[in-house]
Amino acid sequence: MSDVARIAYIDHSFHRTTRSTEFLPEVLQRHGHVVEHFWDDAWQGGQPVAWSEVAAHDVVIMFQSFCRPNSPYFRQSHPNVIYIPMLDQFGLWQGPLYNLSAFWEPFQGSKVLNFSNALQSMTTAFGIVSHFARYYQPVTASPPPARDGLHGFFWLRRELQLPWKTIRRLIEDVRFDSFHIHLATDPGTAAPQLPSAEDIGRHRITTSTWFEHKKDLHALMERANVYFAPRAEEGIGQSFLEAMGRGQCVVAPNQGTMNEYILPGFNGLLFDILDPQPLDFSDVTRLGARARESTIAGRAAWERAEDELVRFILTPSEALYVGRYQHAFKGMPSDAQPAVHPSASASWVARLRAFSQRHALFRSTRAIWHPVVRLARQLLGR
Predict the structure, then answer these.
(1) Closest by alpha carbon to 12, among 26, 22, 3?
(2) Of 129, 170, 207, 360, which one's alpha carbon is 20 to 30 angstroms from that of 62?
């Protein structure tokens, strides 16, 4: 590969409008690489991205959406595939819904880039080389002017997950001086239930459904000092990160990724989405100020980690598995299989390890026999 990489960037076509994932192509382009977008429209009945369209690129990045190669594993079809999952695509806030091992199997031997601690732990546990990055948006030079009293903003996006009645429960012990609800649900979700006349009078509620210009919506958001996160969980959480950068106190479910950015009582407030209780809003000014400070520090850390992120993306998968978990791919030619190189003194340990990777029974009982292998390696000086 030349110094300039040709990178195929496969993304969910919904992001074509929101542009919420453009920060990564911008980083790669800033480092001199060529990024070609491929938009996956299969989620709404359109055409998926064909593997043949991206196979010739130096790097294939798949952001949430992905296209299947002909082989069972991406590594068999391309030396440098990176998958970027979003935490909210798995619905973990609802508890254990299904076994994810089959989902992650095709990515064995490839790479995963995570924007969530929870996902980083998950993919590493599945034996996939993974890189964690904590994203923060650029922060404006100065926050909007502070306002006295309580002024709330809530974008009602998913009625069945986070409706107005949940927010009403959180604020039932206080009276807001103003509260705006933006009634614009996500595609395919239930219609929103409006607040009662009593709620409207108590909290001076105003509503909107659509703005011709996005700046008008942003201007309305900036009038608030308390921002209620709109979803039960997020992939990254661009909307609440914007609010933190504005110096607003973010109120969010105690779920990812919100609870990876917000420390309750320090730079925001979290609540149990299954059992919401009234919250204390007496210190929202201080919480908002700390939210902004957290965002400024986080953005600086993101920028410092940029070179490391680019190196991870450009490095072929095989190089990152050296000395780590080796995958024995079924059907892969022998000269292309990841190799295990045991020393003569520990060859039986290496053979046992390689054998275990090829047989499901031994993989599933690793917790039983692996301590014995580890002890043997210590005795052999490895």
Answers:
(1) 22
(2) 360
Q: Answer yes or no: CATH 2.40.360 is held by domain 6-133+305-320.
A: no
Q: Provide the 10 A C-beta neighbour count for residue 49.
A: 21
Helix orientation angle between 306-314 and 284-304, rounded to the nearest 10 degrees: 50
Helix 23-30 crosses helix 306-314 at what angle (to 10 degrees)? 90
Where helices occur in 233-346 by DSSP H, the ranges are 238-245, 258-261, 284-304, 306-314, 317-320
pTM (2 decimals)?
0.84
Low-confidence ranges of the chain (pLDDT < 50): 330-331, 333-347, 350, 354, 357-360, 363-364, 382
End-to-end CA distance of the chain: 35
DSSP letters of 143-206? PPPP-SS-EEEEEE--TTTS-HHHHHHHTTTS--SEEEEEE-PPTTSPPPPPPPHHHHHHHTEE
∠ CA 319-322-324, nearest 5°, is: 130
Give the pair of three-digit tokens for residue 166.
Answer: 């949940």
> In sequence order, what are the residues at sequence separation of 6 or more whose Cβ sits closer than 8 angstroms to the Cβ of residue 358?
328
For 241, the token pair is: 């990160």
Domain with CATH 3.40.50.2000 in the chain: 151-296
Question: What is the dotted CATH code of the domain comprising 151-296?
Answer: 3.40.50.2000
Peptide bond into 257 cis (omega under 30): yes
Rounded CA-CA distance 161/341 in Å is 51
| Distance in angstroms (rounded) separating the CA atoms of residues 354 and 378 | 18
| Chain CA centroid to CA 237, Å | 8
Cα–Cα distance measured from residue 289 to residue 268, given in angstroms and rounded to the nearest whole number: 10
| Overall residue count recorded for the chain in this entry | 382
Radius of gyration, CA atoms only, the chain? 24
Q: What does the pLDDT look like over 15-58, one tens digit per residue? A: 888 888 999 999 999 999 999 999 999 888 898 999 999 999 99
Phi-psi sector, 270: left (phi>0), alpha (psi -120 to 50), beta = beta
Dmax over CA atoms of the chain, in Å, equals: 80
- Give CA–CA dist 235/260, Å, rounded: 11
